[in-house]
């Protein structure tokens, strides 16, 4: 049953595409009502199938950045952290570096800021654990930030819908996937165009640079999305919890822009919560100064 659910979930993007196609066909063609209902309900039900949920003890890995960062959409506040279990995102986290002036106000501009205007853009992304690189994609361009009312509305409506139909590649943007020696898989997403310094088949060690933070995929501004999974394909993978080594949480400071209330009962203990500022230090024998 577990393998069957994974096989169905692997095609989740195609199920929703089929559902939309059936809706269009039913609207344009005279189809008997029972057949019309079945043709729409079946792909919708198949789309809702997800890989079996796993709740093992968190896997200990090293934090994938260095310096001062802020957590958002974090499993330290709730699980599932991004509100969905799809694409292995059960325990995913987003992290970014704040500008010295703090929060940037939402404005009415028709164009967002350039990604280069954000401190996270271009920051090195480092391997969390030793393993083998299985997938590298860095050809998508970096888009401008969605930091104004018009661009946010665009992101949450038509752009978001199109990325949803595009599946994991469109949502995650440029990415690197690594199979760790313990059999888990890490996804590093929203990478900068052309910044990958590893290729499939390469060996990656803890602290080795993989790429740079960019603004590709479903992003409002440059940041790193990272998650741990039990399979190499996000579509058929279940998300796994992780525990970061090399993290010092600053209990005296909180980014109010990203803080979203108290941790839910489902939160992952010991992981930075939404809005918490943390200092990431280098592991012993790191490949990055």
Task: List the main descriptive attributes of the protein structure presented here.
Glucose Permease (Domain IIA); globular; two-stranded parallel sheet; alpha+beta; single chain; 289 residues; 22% helix; 2 domains; 14 strands
Describe this structure in words.
The chain has 289 residues and is an alpha+beta fold. It has two domains: 2-47, no CATH class; 59-280, Glucose Permease (Domain IIA) (Distorted Sandwich), CATH 2.70.70.10. The protein is built from five helices and 14 strands. Helix 2 (12-28) runs antiparallel to helix 3.
Name the CATH superfamily classification of the largest domain: Glucose Permease (Domain IIA)
On the 0-100 scale, what is the average pLDDT? Answer: 88
Number of helices, counting only DSSP H or I runs of 4 residues or more: 5
What CATH calls the topology of the largest domain is Glucose Permease (Domain IIA)
Overall geometry: globular
Oligomer: single chain
The unreliable regions are none
Count structural domains: 2
CATH architecture of the largest domain: Distorted Sandwich
């Amino acid at each position: 049953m577990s393998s069957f659910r994974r096989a169905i979930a692997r095609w989740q993007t195609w199920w929703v595409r089929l559902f939309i196609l059936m809706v269009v066909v039913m609207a344009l063609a005279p189809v008997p009502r029972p057949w019309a209902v079945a043709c729409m309900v079946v792909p919708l039900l198949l789309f809702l199938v997800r890989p079996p949920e796993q709740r093992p003890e968190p896997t200990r890995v090293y934090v994938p950045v260095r310096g001062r960062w802020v957590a958002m959409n974090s499993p330290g506040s709730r699980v599932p952290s991004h509100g969905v279990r799809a694409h292995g995102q059960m325990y995913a986290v987003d992290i970014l570096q704040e500008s010295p002036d703090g929060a940037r106000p939402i404005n009415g501009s028709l164009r967002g800021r350039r990604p280069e205007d954000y401190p996270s853009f271009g920051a090195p992304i480092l391997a969390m654990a030793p393993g083998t690189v299985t997938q590298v994609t860095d050809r998508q361009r970096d888009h401008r930030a969605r930091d104004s009312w018009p661009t946010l509305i665009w992101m949450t409506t038509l752009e978001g819908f199109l990325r949803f139909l595009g599946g994991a590649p469109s949502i995650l943007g440029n990415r690197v996937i690594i199979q760790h020696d313990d059999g888990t898989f890490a996804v590093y997403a929203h990478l900068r165009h052309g910044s990958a310094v590893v290729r499939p088949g390469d060996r990656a060690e803890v602290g080795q640079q993989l790429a740079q933070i960019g603004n590709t995929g479903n992003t409002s501004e440059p940041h790193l999305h990272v998650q741990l999974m039990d399979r190499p394909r996000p579509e058929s993978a279940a998300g796994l919890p992780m525990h970061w080594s090399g993290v010092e949480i600053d209990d005296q400071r909180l980014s109010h822009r990203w803080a979203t209330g108290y941790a839910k009962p489902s939160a992952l203990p010991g992981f930075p919560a939404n809005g918490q500022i943390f200092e990431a230090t280098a592991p012993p024998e790191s490949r990055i100064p």
